[in-house]
Design brief:
The complex is a heterodimer of chains A (about 350) and B (about 180).
Chain A (H helix, E strand, L loop, with lengths): L3 H12 L4 H13 L1 H15 L14 H21 L13 H6 L11 H9 L7 H9 L7 H7 L24 H15 L5 E3 L4 E3 L1 H8 L13 E9 L6 E7 L4 E6 L8 E8 L7 E6 L4 E5 L6 H6 L1 E8 L12 E6 L10
Antiparallel strand pairs in A: 1-3, 2-3, 3-4, 4-5, 5-8, 6-7, 6-9, 9-10
Helix pairs in contact in A: 1-3, 2-3
Chain B lengths: L3 H12 L3 H23 L2 H18 L10 H19 L29 H10 L4 H13 L3 H8 L3 H19 L2
Helix pairs in contact in B: 1-2, 2-3, 2-4, 3-4, 5-8, 6-8, 7-8
Classes of the chains: A alpha+beta (about 350), B mainly alpha (about 180).
């Protein structure tokens, strides 16, 4: 077991917060100290699951061909080394492929395309982007505490344990015992109205051009547009064992995207997303959360941006296809408020 | 949709030089890795370069993957992040004013891999993160998702770097205690 200093170094190495010099030290330690390498591996295990929250983005379709060319080249180089046949590959050749394969995973070694990457980076435009920076900083204002969120919850969302499976009256088929227990468990969790925003994550900027760039590589990076709007992200999770949702609000595009990080409800049930605001007479349905992992909904036109920003968002468990009454009928599983990230506005 | 066990199997096949398995592995993991890299590096061209490096490395060292100690995607993301952070860090402060552009959610094309359920490890991690002060949660998450150094965090959040250092250390050790491993 290592002391806290070593452990903190390993943790920060994995997290990525070390300076270049410190990373070199950590990598040197990794290469010669199996104990430290094990500590790093443990941290990769502890923190690594955070990648689940990262939005998947399709890389350009031709990337696979480039990778395939790369591994074919590596294969040929391996053969060339063993047969002492000179091979003129497309990339500078690592001196010994076998040796590089023996190096620890963390040590990237002398990858052939490093130079290219460095060139790309140094070629980046370095213009000041104050508006972007200001926008980002403003999204990092302290969030409200859980208690504040709870205080803001309308009384109508208070749940009793007895509303658990029965709350979805109108559903003809009762779920099997196992599922009934599961839903009861959920509803009990909801009754605590913890509505805990576990973490506001990575509040970032939306670049409208980026996704299309990612999917249509024939466009060049020069087409990158300046960021136009903050995107607000929150993880809604009641307790470690309950379902969790990642909710992203884009006020400018008037869209809300909900990502399910948990099982779909059983057939006969749907999760439904609601916008709650004291400026509205009733909660506004944003529609059922689809069966796919990610659902994007437009915010209805009658809801202005300010309402959108200040609203609380909730997820309820409804009969299949969503509430038939236009109002939540099932237990509210989550409720949370976005950070108002608009620069200069008071949320 | 590929389950984790299938990815483990694919990595095993890749370690034996199976190119078809490598292509399937790429198909199942590319969008997640690209999303991670875009967030840290910001620029598609740079992210693509690191994607190439990452998958070449996976091809070379797939035999080092140990399913007992890591999940395939976590292992691959760690390789990609390490490379990306090395690049950003070696450029020094050059990139501080160059904010990565966050990608739009790929709502229409969710990654096959991302359809899995929330893992027990993630639940545990989130509940432990939830115990930290909001300010500290934010620092840890910004560091992970954006690949920011302590200096970068300090400058962005207008918090002295020594405070960032103290908070990071304390937060990470609290996470360790909380997760109990």
């Amino acid at each position: 077991m290592y002391d806290d200093d070593h452990d903190a170094l390993a943790a920060e190495y994995v997290l990525g917060t070390l300076s270049a010099a410190e990373r070199e030290q950590a990598e040197a330690l990794l290469a010669r100290d199996a104990g430290f390498a094990e500590t790093v591996r443990l941290w990769e295990h502890r923190l690594g699951e955070l990648n689940v929250m990262v939005e998947a983005v399709e890389p350009p379709p031709d990337l696979w061909e480039r990778i395939k060319t790369g591994i074919d080249g590596a294969e040929r180089r391996t053969q060339a080394a063993s047969e002492t046949i000179e091979f003129t590959g497309v990339q500078p050749e690592p001196s010994d492929v076998a040796a590089s394969a023996d190096s620890p995973p963390i040590d990237a070694g002398a990858e052939p395309s490093i130079q290219t990457v460095a060139d790309l980076l140094s070629d980046q435009a370095q213009g000041p982007e104050d508006s972007k920076t200001a926008g980002l900083a403003s999204t990092l204002l302290p969030s409200e505490s859980t208690a504040e969120i709870v205080d803001r919850l309308p009384k109508s969302t208070a749940l009793s344990k007895s509303t658990a499976p029965q709350a979805t009256a109108g559903t003809e088929t009762a779920p099997p015992d196992q599922n009934a227990r599961r839903w009861r468990g959920l509803a009990i969790g909801a009754s605590a109205i913890a509505a805990l925003l576990v973490a506001y994550i990575a509040v970032t900027h939306l670049a409208p051009g980026l996704v299309s760039l990612g999917r249509q590589p024939q466009l060049t990076t020069g087409a990158l547009k300046p960021a136009t709007a903050p995107q607000l992200v929150a993880v809604l999770q009641q307790e470690p064992t309950a379902p969790a949702f990642l909710v992203m609000l884009d006020p400018q595009q008037r869209t809300i995207t909900i990502r399910r990080l948990t099982a779909a409800p059983d057939s006969g049930r749907s999760y439904e997303l609601w916008l709650n605001s004291n400026k509205l007479p009733n909660p506004a349905s944003l529609g059922p959360v689809g069966n796919s992992e990610v659902t994007t909904r437009s915010i209805p036109q009658n809801i202005d941006v300010e309402t959108m920003r200040s609203a609380t968002y909730s997820v309820s468990l409804e009969p299949s296809g969503g509430s038939a009454t236009g109002a939540p009928t099932g237990p509210t599983l989550f409720k949370g408020r976005m950070i108002d990230a608009a620069p200069g506005s008071s949320g | 949709m590929l389950m984790q066990t299938e990815l483990v199997w694919l990595l095993g096949a890749v370690a034996r030089g199976d190119e078809a398995a490598f292509e399937r592995l790429y198909g199942a993991t590319r969008a997640k890795l690209y999303g991670v890299l875009l967030r840290i590096l910001g620029r598609p061209a740079l992210a693509e370069e690191v994607m190439e490096e990452t998958y070449l490395k996976v091809w070379k060292i797939a035999d080092q993957f140990d399913p007992a100690t890591a999940s395939p995607i976590t292992w691959m993301v760690a390789i990609a992040r390490n490379r990306a952070i090395d690049i950003v860090r070696k450029q020094g402060d050059v990139s501080i004013d160059e904010e990565p552009e966050a990608p739009e959610p790929a709502a229409e094309t969710p990654a096959p891999l991302a359809r899995r359920e929330m893992t027990a490890e993630l639940k545990r991690l989130l509940s432990c993160l939830g115990r930290l002060d909001p300010e500290k949660q934010r620092i840890v998450l910004l560091a992970y998702y954006s690949g920011w150094s302590r200096d970068h965090l300090a400058s962005k959040l207008d918090i002295p770097v020594n405070t960032i250092k103290t908070w990071l250390r304390r937060s990470l050790l609290e996470i360790r205690e909380c997760m109990g491993t």
